[in-house]
């Protein structure tokens, strides 16, 4: 009697979810629900790091507060972070997922440094795409991606449950795009439909490795893949965003790279645009 084939997601053994409490009001985290349901689907261990931003006298804007006021704020933020961790542990237990939680209280930028270090010990990290243009969520995504050597799934608001039936691979022929597709292989193999999307002029698409040449590689791994070359239109990001909607994508896979050496972390234009608003969770790798 032959044994059933293992699930394509069986290679994912541990998932890290990172959140950070920045204000006195708890903000909803789609990453926690997404990471929990992903861990359940993969039969993986879940770790939730719910950190609080411990205020420091070195921050210039804190000059208006006295020491006692800062201590009160620290305790409130710590309590919120611990509440998130406890609730996550309870939800995981109810779902039958083995879960470890931690609620460190750290000054900035130690929150993002700790997350990147923890990310190296997990197969992938799940983080929120924050609602603001510049926030701690964005810093956590950048640091984890560029300093952990592991992929990141960045989850926009409202995507509280893992799904990967229909996936778009943003393809530009770069090493980063190839690495992202390889790292995302467990999800690509388990998907019902995967579409390689190349955006640009005809010359730009064929200057790099065309998607049609990359598709056989995915097909040999058992991926149900198709190819779609699209004109740039208004911009690469807007064309990709529109196609993700038409394809009803559950996930978008793209490579990330440093676009300007003058900054330690700086995404290329397409990724940066998606981190300001994505129609689906982003699987990012470099």
Automatic annotation (TrEMBL):
Belongs to the universal stress protein A family. This is UspA domain-containing protein. It holds the Pfam family Usp. Residues 165-284 form the UspA domain. InterPro entries: Universal_stress_UspA (IPR006015), UspA (IPR006016). SUPFAM superfamilies: Adenine nucleotide alpha hydrolases-like (SSF52402).
């Amino acid at each position: 009697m032959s044994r059933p084939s293992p699930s394509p997601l069986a290679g994912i053994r541990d998932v890290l979810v990172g959140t950070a409490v920045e204000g006195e009001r708890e903000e909803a985290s789609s990453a926690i629900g997404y990471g929990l349901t992903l861990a359940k689907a993969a039969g993986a261990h879940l770790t939730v790091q719910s950190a609080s931003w411990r205020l420091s006298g070195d921050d210039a804007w804190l000059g208006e507060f006295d020491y006692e006021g800062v201590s009160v704020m620290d305790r409130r933020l710590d309590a919120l972070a611990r509440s998130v961790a406890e609730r996550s542990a309870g939800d995981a237990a109810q779902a039958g997922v083995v879960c470890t939680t931690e609620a460190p209280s750290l000054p900035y930028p130690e929150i993002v440094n700790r997350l990147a270090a923890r990310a190296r010990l997990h197969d992938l990290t799940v983080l929120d795409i924050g609602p603001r243009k510049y926030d701690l969520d964005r810093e956590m995504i950048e640091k984890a991606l560029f300093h952990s050597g592991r992929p990141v799934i960045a989850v926009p608001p409202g995507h509280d449950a893992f799904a990967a039936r229909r996936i778009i691979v943003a393809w530009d022929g770069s090493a980063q795009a190839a690495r992202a597709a390889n790292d995302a292989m467990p999800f690509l193999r388990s998907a019902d439909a995967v579409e390689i999307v190349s955006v640009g002029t005809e010359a730009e698409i064929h200057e790099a490795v065309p998607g049609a040449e990359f598709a056989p590689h995915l097909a040999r791994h058992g991926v149900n893949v198709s190819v779609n070359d699209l004109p740039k239109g208004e911009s690469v990001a807007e064309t990709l965003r529109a196609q993700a909607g038409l394809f009803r994508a559950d996930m978008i896979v793209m490579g990330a790279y440093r676009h300007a050496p003058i900054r330690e972390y700086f995404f290329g234009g397409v990724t940066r645009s998606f981190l300001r608003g994505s129609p689906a969770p982003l699987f990012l790798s470099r």
